[in-house]
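Deliverable D4.2, example record:
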Amino acid sequence: MFFTGDPTTRKRVDLGGRSSKERDRQKLIEQTRLERNRRLWLRQQNSAAIKIQKCFRGRKAVEAEHDKVRDQFYRTYGKSYLNINRQSFGPDSEFLRNLFFFFNAQNNGDFTVLVETCRLLLQLVQDNGDIISLFGGVDYLTNHALVDYRVKQLAFCCIQAVYHNREQLKDQVLMTPWESSEPAVVLLEVVVLLIDQKLPWACKIVGYLLQRNVFTLFREIVLVGKENRRPNNCVGKAPSLERMLSMIISHVGQKPCICPHIDPLCSFSSQMLTIPFLWQLFPSLKEVFATRELSRHYTHQMALCVQGHANVLPNDVSAEYPGYACLLGNMLETAGVTLSQPDCSFEMAIDLAAVTTFLLETLPPIKSSSRETRENSTLAEDDAALPDEMEIVLNRDLEQQITNAINSRFLLQLTNVLFGEISLNGSHYGLDEKEVTAVGAACAFLNVIFNTLPLERIMTILAYRTDLVRVLWNFMKQCHEKQRWSSLPEQLLHLPADVPGWLLPLAVFCPVYKHMLMIVDNEEFYEQEKPLSLKDIRCLIIILRQALWQLLWVNPMAHNNAVKQMMNTSAYRRNPVESIKHRVSVVASELLSQLQDWNNRRQFTPPSDFHADGVDDFFISQAVLDGTKANDIMKRAPFLVPFTSRVKIFNSQLLAARQRNGAHGVFTRNRFRIRRDHILEDAYNQMSALSEEDLRGLIRVAFVNEFGVEEAGIDGGGIFKDFMENITRAAFDVQYGLFKETADHLLYPNPGSGMIHEQHLQFFHFLGTLLAKAMFEGILVDIPFATFFLSKLKQKFNYLNDLPSLDPELYRHLIFLKHYQGDISELELYFVIVNNEYGEQTEEELLPGGRNNRVTNENVITFIHLVSNHRLNFQIRQQSSHFLRGFQQLIQKDWIDMFNEHELQLLISGSLESLDVDDLRLHTNYAGGYHSEHYVIEMFWEVLKGFSLEKQKKFLKFVTGCSRGPLLGFKFLEPLFCIQRAAGSASEEALDRLPTSATCMNLLKLPPYRSKQQLETKLLYAINAEAGFDLS
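Output generated by the structure prediction step:
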């Protein structure tokens, strides 16, 4: 940096280890490369400039030549075209040759020349009628090449002229020649004239037009014209554009037609069928398209594109009119006509199913205009879209076009064509390829339908008016018997090849058969064995059980959060396999649960058929842990687990809840003082004042006798159990008016309870809490509830088959109506029902305007189910709702969702069978000198075994405070039953004492009686005394 006085230069050292020569060489190479690239870029610039100038000069020269020929054309034929005559169109005339040379559709003068030329051509043909001699002269065959070329050019120039001037002609393009002679009509009429199929050049012209992609031009013309459409004053007359399209689409590349195949992107299907509501614009075109050959050709063309996963759709008209939805709507609107033709082929139905399936998969779910049926609520929750996903909203009219097209007639026609040649009796030779293809097409189509359209519109049709259930069952049954599930055709499913063959058939079969079971009556199911035999149903149960276990345990899906995301429409397209698996797990679980209900009504298969084989102690230990596979199964398909295992899980959940709330603490905050002769009022007043937290804690009871004195004894749990038995017996007594009895002495809420108790809904809330407290503390109470009321604790809906338990006579009348062969309207029934409560009759409408709506053969099924709904659901809705609110204060919904209604009754009351004395003896302890072989103990068990069921229940209540034993046996009695010697010696005074008990410890204090008769007498006296806790 500073001068040091040393004149020598210091050698520079490259710390990179390279010499200066090497560094200079690299620099030289880089400079050379850059210079070479610069020279190349200059050459490319010069070459591009030369090409541009050459093109520009060429264009200028062509335009100059066009202008020159145009001027010559005007000089020859005159500005007013007075020199044009018939010979001007002949092969020897230069008129058309010159016109085509300079014609520019965007030039106003050229456009006018073409219009006037076409006007003259139409006039000449109208006067003479021979268009072949007009263009071909005397000998068309000699000049056919020149004539064909000129006719092609004339037709395309006319279409091009309309396309380029469509904005100016937008009011004219949809007019008919009978109402107007505007330029657009004249030009289009000439094209119609030239492509008449009777003319020798027709196919050549159409082929040329197709090669020039005229449908892309027609699409733009129609889109502009439809916005300015005027009412057609010529009834029955089609616009020129519509007639032209009808003639062009008839050329489908089949003999004798020689039109070439074109790019699907520019085809009629892609360009024209994606126009919204095309058939409203062109009804005559719809009739032409719906003919068998045309519809089959264009549908097959689209099916090939679907199979090849080719995107051949143009840009959407707008966000609410996506091209795939418009194509779907237009295809479905004509599909019904095509399928109804007697010669409609199986291949046509397969192609149609493939195309509509593909298009429906891209469609957002269409919401029902009416309320969705309750049985689909589970799927509706899971199908909710993600908040951050942009929702695609179709135009309401477009939605309506699609949903109206997939009607009962369409579904019947499609299934009839697909299943028409399939045997419903099965085959010893297995499934043929055609049957597998038909099942695959139907399942793929209907699976997408279920995800897209409102289910209540189509389920009844599929269940009762088609052979879908029987065909699918025949397919599944044969696959199951041969232990080989046929792989459904991949091109129909758009799913990977390794997808299980049973997945898609179950996704369709389960919801349809489930819907059928809601309408089938008991006689049809059990006696007539319709639609499936009981033997087949047993096989079906095994298939469903194995499928569910495979989906939920062997190869489990994602958990709930991920599943809900999958059921979103776009997520479904990204991962359809997981979405279908989730759907199958839901619908198969619902169907298997429904079949279990049928088996509970009248057993046709062992309950163990519903249980999976892999449930063990490890499974049970995992079931109580959130986020585990076992816990997920308990929520989705609890019936796969044996009842005893579920009870163990339920008891462990209750125990954990009691421990969290300190239910076994030493000190008790809540102490009830209950008068035995006012037990219900005292319990209601004191329990209603407790918070939910207090209800979960310990409650101790002191009984007050009729003299106002508290009974002796300290409540260690036994007195509370006695209280619970007495209060439930009093509260649920039909004499109190809150509950009524069925013919089988089963309890359900009294619909007229409000006429007896002003605060009846508060009482139902209290009773719900009371029942929940008994279950929470593990106390069994002898209250037999009707099954249809227990379903309300599970928040389920009741159907026709639940009605016999409430009103067998009404059920018989409704079944009579269902099978009535005559004219039901003659019975003078209306959509009203008469309620009769305590002698007061009221009339209610089942539907708005029901008093004027007569029951007919068409609506009788609706009437039957509305009556059932009124009796089973509507009448007791308020009472059930308040009871449920009280019940859920202590018992969580997911706890009892593990059990069906019959199992829930067992949880409440225990088994109705006789007391298992041997089980009690096996799990009994002894104290005070007694042992299992003591002579008093031997006498005791002989006496107890000889008691009637009623006396045995009284004994059990005497020693435990509850007349029902533990649900899983006396092994689970806490603490175990114990017999203690009551007196130290066998003196007369000691032997004169009665047996006593300590119910809080499940303890029997038994004196050492000398004889069996004395023991029986004293024991019966003690258990029948009902002296409360004053007895000593």
